[in-house]
Amino acid sequence: MIRSGVILAALLWAGQAAAHDFERCEKPEIAAVLEALTAAEKIALRAAVSIGDTPEFALWFGAWSKENGATVRSSFKAIHAAIRDNDLKVVCANVGEDDCNASMYANVFRHDAYAINLCPSFFGMPEIHAHSNTSAIMENGTRAGTIIHEVSHFDVVAGTDDLCYTRTDCAAMALTRSLVRNADSYQYFAEDVAALPRD
C-alpha cells in the first residue's frame, strides 16, 4: 500500500545517522518518537549486558537457565541492533486505522520489518525515568519500552509473541512458565534494568 505525507527525520545515534520515515505524524509526535527511540536503543543495550541469574530476570522471564539467558541476551542484542541500524517507518495512526483501537498503544505486522504503527494512546504513555517502576502509571510501561516491545515482534529480530500484557499479569505468569518469547517481558525487563543504579 502506498501512503502519502511522508516526512523524513534524521537522528544521529553514536556517530551513525539513521533516517526514519514518519507518516501522518505531527511535529510534537515526531519529537516524542525520536526521544523514545533514543532511550529504547540505550536501555536495550543495557538490558543485553545485564542478563544473568537475577531477580529481574526471574520476575519477567521466569526460571533462570543458561539457555534462557542466552535466548534473552541474543534477542536484546538483535533489538538494539534493529533500532540502531535500521530506518524505521513510523505511522501515527488514528483509532480505527492500521489495526489501532482505543486501548492499543502500538502494533506491527511481524513480517513487515521495521514498520511500526503508533496509536494515539502511545503518546500518553510516560517517558522512561519519569516515574518509579512500582508506580501504578507504569503498569503498561513507557514509550521507550513500547518501542522495544514492538521491535521484538519482527521475525528478523526476535520473533516474540504476546503471551501476557501488563506488569501485574506478566509477573504472575513468569512464576509458572518461561516468558523468553514474550514481548512485554522484554519491555519491562529493559525498563527495570534502566532504573537500577549503575555499579
TrEMBL record:
<comment type="similarity">
    <text>Belongs to the peptidase M35 family.</text>
</comment>
<feature type="signal peptide">
    <location>
        <begin position="1"/>
        <end position="19"/>
    </location>
</feature>
<keyword id="KW-0479">Metal-binding</keyword>
<dbReference type="GO" id="GO:0046872">
    <property type="term" value="F:metal ion binding"/>
</dbReference>
<keyword id="KW-0378">Hydrolase</keyword>
<dbReference type="Pfam" id="PF14521">
    <property type="entry name" value="Aspzincin_M35"/>
</dbReference>
<dbReference type="InterPro" id="IPR029463">
    <property type="entry name" value="Lys_MEP"/>
</dbReference>
<protein>
    <submittedName>
        <fullName>Protease</fullName>
    </submittedName>
</protein>
<dbReference type="GO" id="GO:0004222">
    <property type="term" value="F:metalloendopeptidase activity"/>
</dbReference>
<keyword id="KW-0732">Signal</keyword>
<keyword id="KW-0482">Metalloprotease</keyword>
<keyword id="KW-0862">Zinc</keyword>
<dbReference type="InterPro" id="IPR024079">
    <property type="entry name" value="MetalloPept_cat_dom_sf"/>
</dbReference>
<dbReference type="InterPro" id="IPR050414">
    <property type="entry name" value="Fungal_M35_metalloproteases"/>
</dbReference>
<feature type="domain" description="Lysine-specific metallo-endopeptidase">
    <location>
        <begin position="47"/>
        <end position="191"/>
    </location>
</feature>
<keyword id="KW-0645">Protease</keyword>
<dbReference type="GO" id="GO:0006508">
    <property type="term" value="P:proteolysis"/>
</dbReference>
